[in-house]
């Protein structure tokens, strides 16, 4: 973490070079930040400085939690009320910033919400210690496994060593460290420092990959030891819970994880964050659970109490999960498990994909196409067989998930094609420039209409963008561009079986020696093979096409996607929204790390709204938020103070609100967010309630 004097006004610039995010804190006069010890903060911080100021202005309406410096909660100020705090020693937590921020003061102060931000007025020059912690978390170790599934069971059994607590607070993403990585080798080897917490939880399953792989997230979250058993069950002390029934085995495992995680989110409101949670308000009358007693109970007792509640009672209130993944049960795919556990992904073992050709548009004869059509992938006697040079197929949708991915051979229709090398780059990434470099490449003059997307990137406060347009690049010029360090390349042009069409021929991504572009959009026909090569050569991920596409539809989707990425939506979420507003959006897919965000949302998690007028002055607003790598699944969200006094668990959909025109306009004016009205996508800075018919 880096602290600097703000370049434009009095205050601090706080910068996380690994996540490439920054935040500003403004002061009443010029400051000289001086490094101080991090040990004096109750919660862990990576770095800290002290400044002298009479007031401190946080230029966003963030929820603020006030504690004593030994962690006891004093107040939580997301209700919009101003308040005076008596003299004392306080730790002030600023929620939803792009890094964890804490202010330590020994003073009385007045807290007010005004001018679109939060003002802390100390009444006189006061020493304020500012501590920051990056959301980035690296795996501490790597475990070597053989192709024996028993070694994978041993590896999953120490994943709980990455948990920072076994209390219900581990449902917060910042209290779940990244599990140790897995690599294949000749002998099993686990570093001595990996110690699993003694939780008393043991999933017992038959020792085969079809039963072991789906346990990755459940075993990690509960710090469990995976053991062999003749029938699948979860053992917690003297309590046993069958992982069978009317549902499939994977569904039983995933249902158990969803139920126990959700109830932890409710129970944790008895701990460090005693907030009014919407989901607890809905569920508490339906269940016979003493959340106060459960907060202090051993994990085995909590599990027994949680799983005594019929799942059907809770199901309507459990948030949709961030990620569901189809994982083919091969020896190679054991290496995916730590990454899936880190995301708490729901894992399903696929029988086989559904062969499904990706058809060109119905008006193909009248449109200009960028490549010829191909065939499909089918299941053959020896595995997946390409037919007519096409390896695209359809997988069944997973219920109750926001995003879906596939880890296996071939390219799935409408879901993220994961790649191990891309996930490795997520955890291995190093500090970068604090400028976000975006390159828009237009290699066909007939597609210049789409070139307007360069105007949609870079309209963000607190972020420094450098957007460059390129036209008619030659092979060497495109090769050089892809090799240089940059954040995003938006390619507009032609791609065929020979590669990217350049002014002097075609550039095949297979010929590239390196790729240093973090992410990409290849808006060209059947670009998925070239996109996959970019990931293999060094990119973390991107969006590509699975079939021929026509110019008008490609241009429309490209513009929508550009703006969604610019406002902080992860690749998978951005494409899922863009698809809804393009008839041929199903022809696009995400390759590599679909959880990647080009930039991060100003308010923590990106917000998406659907609005319907129901009367002269009444509107129904469906609010959705999309967990991301900074604010993962389990994050609290507080909507605008005039919309709801409750906190919610981040998910999509998250809340359904009944608002007046004044309340709706208030929220639309506070941040720029996508808004859907009658299936048409708008942006909140273009709308007022009076525009909605």
Describe the protein in words.
Strand 2 and strand 3 form a beta hairpin. Strands 1, 2, 3, 4, 5, 6, 7, 8, 9, 10, 11 and 12 form a twelve-stranded antiparallel β-sheet that branches. Helix 13 crosses helix 14. It is built from 15 helices and 42 strands. With 693 residues, the protein is of the alpha/beta class. Residues 360-389 have low confidence and may be disordered.
Short recap of the structure:
The protein has 693 residues and is α/β, with parallel strands linked by helices. It contains 15 helices and 42 strands.
- Sheet bearing the most strands, described? 12 strands, antiparallel
Unreliable residue runs: 360-389
What overall form do the CA principal axes indicate?
A: globular
Give me the count of strands: 42
Number of helices: 15
Radius of gyration: 25 Å
- End-to-end CA span: 48 Å
- Beta-strand share of residues: 25-35%
Derived from helix and strand composition plus strand pairing, the structural class reads alpha/beta
User: What helical percentage do the residues reach?
Assistant: 10-25%
Mean pLDDT: 89
Provide the fold topology.
Elements: E1 2-5, E2 11-16, E3 21-27, E4 34-35, E5 47-58, E6 64-68, E7 73-76, E8 83-85, E9 89-94, E10 100-106, E11 109-114, E12 117-133, E13 142-145, H1 149-156, E14 181-184, E15 201-205, H2 209-212, H3 216-221, E16 227-228, E17 233-236, E18 239-242, H4 249-267, H5 278-283, H6 291-296, H7 299-306, H8 311-314, E19 321-327, H9 337-342, E20 346-348, E21 377-380, E22 383-386, E23 392-394, E24 401-407, E25 411-413, E26 416-417, H10 420-428, E27 435-442, E28 464-471, H11 475-483, E29 486-492, E30 495-496, E31 499-502, E32 505-507, E33 517-523, H12 528-537, E34 541-545, H13 551-566, H14 571-579, E35 588-592, E36 607-615, E37 618-625, E38 636-638, E39 647-649, E40 655-659, H15 661-670, E41 674-677, E42 680-683
Parallel strand pairs: 13-14, 15-16, 19-20, 19-24, 23-25, 24-26, 27-28, 27-29, 29-33, 33-34, 36-41
Antiparallel strand pairs: 1-2, 2-3, 3-5, 4-5, 5-12, 6-7, 6-9, 8-11, 9-10, 10-12, 11-12, 15-17, 17-18, 21-22, 30-31, 31-32, 34-35, 36-37, 37-40, 38-39, 41-42
